[in-house]
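Give me structure tokens for this 79-residue protein.
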Amino acid sequence: MNKVTIYSTPTCHFCHMAKDFFKEKNVDFQDFNVATDMEKRQEMITKSGQMGVPVILIGDQLIVGFNKPKISELLGIKE
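Here you go.
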């Protein structure tokens, strides 16, 4: 399975939805809180060109926002 990374903030509703989805589907993921980690915030902006969260990396595929169908497709999860 591809490595999954999510850049998120504690107050982001869509970030919580994405992380809940990963947990429900038993997908291991690494979470970076870009509200407090300035280095990871800059990394997220550099990779995505975005300030909005969540920014999700699945392997080398970047997704901005909680796009459940695309995330499922990239992880090979049948809905």
